[in-house]
Design brief:
The protein is an all-alpha fold. The protein has 13 helices and no strands.
Length: about 300
């Protein structure tokens, strides 16, 4: 009767441990990766998205050169690749400042300083052109100047938003993430606390034969990791995220790059957990053989 009760206790605990381990893994990825702005900057660097975004910006200015008569260099000399990279980083930082409650919106206010150089460059071009044709600066001149600057600055800020954070904010997901951040530490601590408690229950339940602990632990952790590894492999080898219908190459690269980054991350974490689970099962099997040989 004791063995049956003990078995049922271990089986029930193992089931709970399966869900607790799943939650703990999610809490770990959320706290250490998903809610860290440097993660998303690293993804951009990893996929060459900084360069793709800047090339897209240059392409937009070059395509308008014949229509407007304004050389693309007027814009690109002011907004260099390094300056544009810092604007992308600032946009990401602004979004996380909003998520963590340090800013009211995801608007990238720091880019305003960087855009002043762009305005100066456009003003210089207009001034030199006006002098070359002896054009007197009138209201129409300044209206055109403001219109060109507004259009150029909009292109720069829109292209710099490689993760479409402004659209995400309008959809309400930034507010959701902000609420989640408030409880991220609690979620992390509770998830790992419950996991640790359930492991302790299994140790106590198998105190007379500690090899049983390794068996039940490998069943719970092995099940979670096997499911996650299988899912990650399917996503990677089917190139599932390549199906996203995103026309802009720099946005496509950034978003799919983030998806594949987390797929790889989960694959690595769960491959390690699966290896530990296999080792635990081997320990149980070896201990069982020794017990039989002694008897």
């Amino acid at each position: 009767m004791y063995k049956l009760r003990n078995y049922l206790l271990c089986a029930f605990t193992a089931i709970l441990l399966f869900f607790a381990a799943f939650a703990a893994e999610g809490a770990f990825v959320m706290k250490k990766y998903a809610l860290v702005p440097d993660t998303y900057k690293y993804i951009l660097k990893l996929n060459g998205s900084y360069e793709k975004a800047y090339n897209e910006l240059c392409r937009q200015f070059e395509s308008e050169e014949n229509a407007t008569g304004i050389p693309a260099s007027v814009y690109t000399d002011a907004v260099t690749e390094d300056v544009f990279k810092s604007m992308i980083d600032s946009q990401i930082d602004s979004a996380f400042d909003c998520i963590y409650g340090n800013a009211p919106t995801v608007e990238n206010t720091s880019s305003e300083e960087q855009l002043k150089v762009l305005k100066t460059s456009i003003e210089k071009f207009f001034d030199e052109y006006a002098k070359s044709i002896n054009y007197q600066k009138d209201e129409a001149y300044f209206q055109k100047l403001d219109s060109v600057y507004a259009s150029a600055s909009e292109k720069v800020t829109d292209t710099a938003d490689v993760y479409q954070l402004n659209k995400i904010a309008k959809a309400g997901f930034i507010n959701t993430a902000s609420k989640l951040v408030r409880y991220s530490d609690k979620i992390f601590n509770v998830a790992f606390g419950i996991t640790g408690f359930l492991l302790l229950v299994l140790i106590i339940a198998n105190i007379k034969g500690i090899s049983g602990f390794f068996y039940w632990m490998s069943i719970s952790f092995g099940s979670v990791s096997a499911l996650m590894v299988a899912g990650s492999i399917v996503l990677k080898h089917s190139h599932y995220f390549n199906r996203f219908a995103i026309k802009a190459q720099h946005i496509y690269s950034s978003i799919t790059g983030a998806c594949y980054y987390y797929t790889d991350l989960l694959l690595m974490i769960n491959a390690a957990v699966l290896a530990v689970s296999v080792i635990s099962m081997i320990i149980f099997w070896v201990a069982g053989r020794k017990k039989v040989s002694v008897q």
